[in-house]
Amino acid sequence: xxxxxxxxxxxxxxxxxxxxxxxxxxxLSLLPHTQMTGVSSLxxxxxxxxxxxxxxxxxxxxxxxxxxLTPRSLLDVCREVEKSxxxxxxxxxxxxxLDLDILLYxxxxxxxxxxxxxxxxxxxxxxxxxxxxxxxPDLRHPLLNKMVRELLAQLTDRSAVRLLDPQPSSRYGSRPxxxxxxxxxDSA
Length: 188
Ligand code: ADP
Ligand code: MG
Prior knowledge:
The chain is an alpha+beta fold. The chain has a single domain (about 5-175), classed as Alpha-Beta Plaits. It has five helices and eight strands. The protein has helices spanning about 15-30, 70-85, 125-135, 150-155, 180-185, and strands at about 5-10, 35-40, 45, 60-65, 100-105, 110, 115, 160-165. Strands 1, 2, 3, 4, 5 and 8 form a six-stranded antiparallel beta sheet that branches. Strands 6-7 form a two-stranded antiparallel ribbon. A hairpin with a 2-residue loop joins strand 6 and strand 7. The radius of gyration is 16 Å and the shape is globular. Bound molecules: adenosine-5'-diphosphate and magnesium ion.
């Protein structure tokens, strides 16, 4: 299995969402046969009006992995991480402790039961495209044949997506990286 470059989106809208996102990133960075080669900034994003699970704003970001894991194993891992961080599989539309989506897996196009890659809504969501564009603005969507920054420019999703301020200070250093200041602000 050749090594592939994969992008995974994460999001959480519970009170301690910063902690959930941080744990998710940490767990993904520890996967076997995998290196984490990029982590976006964190973004605060307005819940989409049509189907907003829970009341609060989301925290979203994207990581880049280089991995030998198959798409299916990666999906299983994402499910395990969601489960270990408390997402209730019977109430997928309830408040989200953590959501993990495989956005892109190399240039592969996958359409299987339970696994669609590129993620079918990636090009419609500002909260995915903003952090993805930070890591890979020139990356081409293998089906739409447009670069991430082009998808972002043509987006009709007007929901607010803003950089979390301040960013947790030590995201690239030792974990856990939730500074008390960021946490206090986060739950204010
Ligand atoms: P969304 O993330 O689109 O808001 P959910 O997380 O509730 O919605 O959807 C989860 C379902 O989507 C799972 O059952 C999973 O099998 C399926 N799925 C299909 N393609 C993907 C993908 N690329 N990444 C993650 N889940 C996917
Ligand atoms: Mg999902």
